[in-house]
Design a protein that fits this description.
The chain is α+β, with helices and mostly antiparallel strands. The chain has 5 helices and 5 strands, in the order H-E-E-E-E-H-E-H-H-H.
Length: 141
């Protein structure tokens, strides 16, 4: 099979996965957790707490939250999730990952990055704090 045929087959498989995901969840996408088949990244569709009346795709992985995007409707959020490749159902992923030590460390490290980004901590102090966090975790294990 030549590379053009493989590309066409892969493109059609992605389209089918997006359509199937939308069909499964379009009636009520709020709370749906999806995984990318290409990585260990996830997203969940939620009402946006900082912008009432809007919805968000909240991205996360084993180390915690990694950003979000805001949409006018939950259906738009679902559409964007599938466009970004989040097509595999992942019920309970957020609940499962958020109880791990890896998540705890990632969230605590993010707190130090937030302090640095807010100008409340130097870059060097941030790195030192994050290194100490992970070193203390290693020595406790």
């Amino acid at each position: 099979m030549d590379s053009r045929m493989k590309t066409l087959i892969a493109r059609n498989a992605r389209k089918a996965a997006k359509a199937a995901c939308k069909a499964r969840h379009i009636a009520n996408p709020v709370g749906v957790q999806l995984k990318s088949p290409l990585s260990e990244r996830y997203t969940v569709i939620l009402p946006d707490a900082s912008e009432p009346g809007y919805f968000r795709l909240q991205y996360f992985d084993a180390s915690g939250f990694s950003g979000h995007s805001t949409f006018n409707t939950s259906e738009q959020a679902l559409h964007e999730a599938t466009v970004e490749g989040f097509t595999e159902d992942a019920p309970g992923a957020l609940e499962r990952l958020s109880t791990t030590e890896t998540w705890r460390l990632g969230v605590e490290a993010q707190g130090y990055r937030d302090l640095y980004n807010a100008g409340k901590m130097s870059f060097e102090a941030m790195l030192k704090a994050i290194n100490a966090l992970y070193e203390s975790s290693q020595s406790a294990a």
